[in-house]
Amino acid sequence: MTETKGKPSGKLAEIFAKINMSELPAMSHHVQELISLAHSSRSAANDLSRVILKDYSLTNKVLQVVNSAYYSLGQSVSSISRAVTILGFDAVRDLATAIAIFEDFIKSGVEKEGISKLMTRSFLSALHCQDIAGEKKLNVLPEEAFICGLLHNLGRIITFIYMPEIYKKIERNVALGLPEERATRELLEDITFAELGQEIAKYWNLSQKVVISMETNPAKPRSGHDTEGYLQNLADFSNRFVDLVCNEEDTSELLNHYGEVISINQEQALELLNKGVEASQDISDSIRYGLSKLKIHSRLEKAARREPASAEQKESAKKAKKTEQDIEELDELPSSDKSINDFIKEMTETLMGPFQLNEFYANLLEAIYRGVGFDRVILCVMSIQTTKIVLSGRFGLGDIDAADIANFEQPLANVDQVIPRAMKQCKDIAVVADAPGAFPDNIHYLVKGRTIYLFPIVVNNKAIALLYMDRKAGRPKLNNDRIKALRLFRDFAAMAIKKSSKKG
Prior knowledge:
By secondary structure, the protein is an alpha+beta fold. Among the domains are: 85 residues, no CATH class; 167 residues, Beta-Lactamase (2-Layer Sandwich), CATH 3.30.450.40. The protein has 25 helices and six strands. Strands 3-2-1-6-5-4 form a six-stranded antiparallel sheet, with helices on both faces. Strand 1 and strand 2 form a beta hairpin.
């Protein structure tokens, strides 16, 4: 492969300018040469040995892997040429390429755990692609499937390494319910992760097969001889399958889509992924670190125990996911489960006997403010004024006085703003600090510099009140357990209103 790089496209140049870089660092020459060997019909063992031996560290790591317990060769291998003779050209080249790419990115100086997780997922996906191609005898070379699977998420990895703030914003917006494609286009000059990866791959002069295999949701292969179509489907399937397993999510929908194309079911896909995990244990310290942080063994065990979801379960999960996507669930708070459980027990006992609704509201706000952990909590109720319906603050707790509670008023006509939208759609919404246009002018002084959580109180499928909760920007986000507790407290409020209405 020539050392000459391509020219950055217009979009790529815009991104370089945005992050004050003239260009991204070139892929190391060692990695370029190793990748080129996957696409050359003239490659030979001595070519591979020559490229690996240029890097003393890479040579040692490849020999360490070859002599690992996984290969169980029964003999010591002390040279790269001997390793090629025993394991084969393709196996050694794939190992060397994976190690070199991984180490290149690890050396980039970004946050170690995050990049290790991303790169380890890509490596597992690459092994998965390679094994499926071999097992299913698809019309693709396993070594090409490996490289295409390894680099499928190049755009995501590049963004994480060189544009960490943009990457965090994209993740945050996706957590708030924005589709990933839209979130990336808004922050990456109208380009997606896949498109960015393709531009970088062209800039680095990678092969056309690598470039096209970065497509997400590709079309099915046109025929059994459509090599590029199979590479695209393999790379997308394996990367998404590994992500779902690592995130402990259901894989049945993905397998329904790709199962027929590549003739695979969940049991087979998990078996091959297990094989890849075992193979990767001794690749390098960085990959071993990434595997530990992914907790991959426990994830695989859970995936193996998980029954395929029924149609009814899928629909329920889809609705739950839609609600969950509207809530930030990133960093965890210090545990105080006992305090939350005490509040739950107290409010359950209250609902079982006679109670005054206003006293219940006071206890509710205390449970949310102290138990879950907010800076301010306001209970707002709907009221009908002469010409409009508004949501008005009724009770509050925390860093807020009575005047601010009384001034908290939001007309419900403008659904472009988040409070009317939450009420109309009966949907929980989290709003990042200082989101433009989210709130009316009259309460800007209250919401400035705050992360806002809005939970409608729904009775008979209609939102009749709202829990407004905020935290100063920069405080840790709510974890899943606290979100669940918050939803339970909100449901208690709906039950209390129903009971009081019946009494009335």
